[in-house]
C-alpha cells in the first residue's frame, strides 16, 4: 500500500537539489553501477512539467533520470498540496506497462517510496514529442507505435486477458490513488464548463466559451463520460497520455509519466492522445506559415494510424490472448460461433469513449488550468484565439456526435477552414 505524504515526511522525505543529489543517492547501487562513482556525477534539474522535479545525472559510464514528486503542484505552488504517493503509482504503472508492451517505457532502475523518487533509464537523445510537433519534425511510425501501445496496455490490463483475481487486486491497489485522478476529474471534465477559479482562456474566446457553457447536452455528455472515467475499471490506463508524456527521436519513441494511472475506460488514453495530436494540427498555421498544410496532413495521417493500429492490435490480441473471464471461447468458438462481431461491437464502444474524451481534452487545454505549448507559444493573441476557436468547435462536435463515430480527419479538415469567432 502506498504511504501518504505525512508518513513519508515522518521517514525523512526531503526534496533533492543538484548539490544534495550525489550525497543522498550516492549509495544507490543501481545508479553507481550504471553511471559510475558519485564523486564524478554531474546533475541538472530539467523538469518542465506541472508537478515534479526531474534530474538528469551523468557519470563517466552513462546517465540516468531521477524523478522526484514534490508535496505540492509545481505549476501552482505550495498552496495546492499533492500527495507524494503518486510516485508509488507511477512506479507500479511503469512496471506494468513494461510487461504489457515491452520497450515502450523507460526501464526502472530503483524506487524509493519514502523519498517519492524513481531512478530510471535516461531516454536519449529523445525530446518531448510536443516540442517536435511544434517544430514540424516528423517521427516515423508515430501513430502506429502509439496505437499499439494503447491496445496492448488496454487489452492486457483487462479481464479479457488477466486472471480476474489479479485484476481485481490491481484495481484495489490503484484505488488508493485518489488525489491525482481528482485533478483530472476537475480540470479535464468539469472546470472547462464553468467559471472555475484557476481557469483562463485567450481574449476573444468569450462568446464561444459562453456557447459551450450554455450547452446542457454537451455538459451532460461530458459528465456521463466523467462517471465512466470514475467508475468503470476496464483496464489500467496511463491517464495523462498527451504529447508531453511521450519522448521521441525521428524514428523512436517512449511513453513516460504514468503518475495519473488508474483503472478506467479503455478509450481514455487514445482519446487524450488524439486530442493532443489535433491541437498540434490546429496550431500549425502559427508555427508553419506560410504553408502549414503538408505537416498538418502528416499529423492527420498519424491520427488515422493511431486508430488503425489500436484496432488491428486489439483484434490480434482478441484472437491470440483472450484468456480472461470476458467473452470466453466457451461461449463462442467452442460452440462453433465467431466472436469477432463481439470484438467489433466492443471496439465501437471504445471509439465512442475515445472521441468523447478527445473533445473534452480539446476543451480543457484551452479553458481550464493547464494549457498546451502548441497554442501557448503563439504570441499573437488574435491568431491564437482564432486557432483555439477551431479546436474548441471541433471538440464540441466530437462530444455531441461521438456515438455516430465521425471521421476525425475529415472533421479536422473542415474545422480548419472555419472561423467560429
Ligand atoms: C495540476 S496538474 C495539471 C495537468 O498536468 C498534468 O500533466 C495533467 O495533464 C494535469 O491535468
Ligand atoms: Mg506528466
Give an overview of the whole structure.
The chain has helices at residues 5-10, 20-25, 29-35, 86-100, 129-135, 142-156, 164-174, 179-188, 206-213, 216-231, 268-287, 293-321, 340-367, 373-376, 381-401, 408-416, and strands spanning 42-45, 52-59, 62-69, 72-73, 77-81, 108-112, 117-121, 127-128, 235-237, 246-248, 253-255, 262-264. It is an alpha+beta fold and 421 residues long. The strands form 4 sheets. The protein has a 5-stranded antiparallel beta sheet with strand order 1-2-3-7-6, with helices on both faces. It is globular. The site of 5-S-methyl-5-thio-alpha-D-ribofuranose has 10 residues, from helix 8. 5-S-methyl-5-thio-alpha-D-ribofuranose binds next to helix 8.
* Overall tally of domains: 2
The number of distinct helices, counting runs of at least 4 residues, comes to: 16
First-to-last CA distance? 50 Å
Sheet with most strands: strand arrangement:
1-2-3-7-6
Multimeric state of these chains? single chain
Parts with pLDDT < 50 across at least 5 consecutive residues: none
Radius of gyration, in angstroms, nearest whole number: 22 Å
Report a brief summary of the structure.
The chain is of the alpha+beta class. It has two domains: 5-121, Phosphorylase Kinase, domain 1 (2-Layer Sandwich); 127-416, Aminoglycoside 3'-phosphotransferase, Chain: A, domain 2. The chain is built from 16 helices and twelve strands.
Amino acid at each position: 500500500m502506498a504511504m501518504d505524504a505525512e508518513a513519508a515526511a515522518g521517514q525523512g522525505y526531503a526534496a533533492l537539489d543538484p548539490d544534495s543529489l550525489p550525497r543522498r543517492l550516492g549509495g544507490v547501487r543501481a545508479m553507481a553501477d550504471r553511471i559510475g562513482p558519485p564523486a564524478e556525477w554531474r546533475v541538472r534539474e530539467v523538469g518542465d512539467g506541472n508537478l515534479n522535479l526531474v534530474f538528469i545525472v551523468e557519470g563517466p559510464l552513462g546517465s540516468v533520470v531521477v524523478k522526484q514528486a514534490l508535496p505540492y503542484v509545481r505549476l501552482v505552488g505550495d498552496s495546492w498540496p499533492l500527495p507524494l504517493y503518486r510516485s508509488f503509482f507511477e512506479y507500479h504503472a511503469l512496471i506494468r506497462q513494461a510487461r504489457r508492451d515491452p520497450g515502450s517505457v523507460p526501464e526502472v532502475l530503483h524506487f524509493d517510496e519514502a523519498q517519492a523518487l524513481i531512478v530510471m533509464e535516461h531516454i536519449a537523445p529523445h525530446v518531448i514529442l510536443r516540442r517536435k510537433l511544434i517544430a514540424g519534425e516528423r517521427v516515423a511510425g508515430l501513430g502506429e507505435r502509439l496505437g499499439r501501445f494503447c491496445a496492448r496496455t488496454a487489452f492486457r490490463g483487462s479481464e479479457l486477458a488477466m486472471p480476474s483475481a489479479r485484476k481485481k487486486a490491481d484495481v484495489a491497489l490503484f484505488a488508493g490513488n485518489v488525489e491525482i485522478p481528482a485533478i483530472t476529474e476537475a480540470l479535464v471534465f468539469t472546470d472547462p464548463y464553468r467559471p472555475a477559479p484557476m481557469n483562463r482562456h485567450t481574449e476573444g474566446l468569450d462568446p464561444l466559451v459562453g456557447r459551450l457553457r450554455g450547452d446542457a447536452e454537451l455538459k451532460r455528455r461530458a459528465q456521463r463520460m466523467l462517471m465512466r472515467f470514475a467508475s468503470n475499471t476496464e483496464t489500467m490506463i496511463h491517464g495523462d497520455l498527451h504529447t508531453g508524456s511521450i519522448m521521441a527521436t525521428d524514428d523512436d519513441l517512449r511513453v513516460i509519466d504514468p503518475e495519473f494511472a488508474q483503472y478506467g475506460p479503455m478509450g481514455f488514453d487514445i482519446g487524450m492522445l488524439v486530442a493532443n495530436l489535433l491541437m498540434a494540427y490546429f496550431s500549425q498555421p502559427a508555427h508553419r506559415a506560410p504553408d502549414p498544410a503538408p505537416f498538418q496532413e502528416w499529423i492527420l495521417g498519424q491520427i488515422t494510424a493511431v486508430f488503425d493500429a489500436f484496432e488491428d492490435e486489439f483484434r490480434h490480441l482478441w484472437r491470440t490472448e483472450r484468456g480472461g473471464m470476458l467473452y470466453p471461447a466457451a461461449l463462442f468458438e467452442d460452440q462453433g460461433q465467431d466472436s469477432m462481431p463481439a470484438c467489433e461491437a466492443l471496439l465501437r464502444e471504445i471509439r465512442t469513449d475515445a472521441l468523447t474524451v478527445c473533445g473534452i481534452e480539446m476543451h480543457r487545454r484551452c479553458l481550464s488550468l493547464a494549457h498546451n505549448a502548441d497554442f501557448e507559444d503563439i504570441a499573437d493573441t488574435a491568431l491564437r484565439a482564432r486557432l483555439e476557436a477551431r479546436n474548441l468547435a471541433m471538440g464540441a462536435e466530437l462530444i455531441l456526435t461521438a456515438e455516430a463515430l465521425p471521421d476525425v480527419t475529415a472533421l479536422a479538415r473542415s474545422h480548419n477552414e472555419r472561423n467560429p469567432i
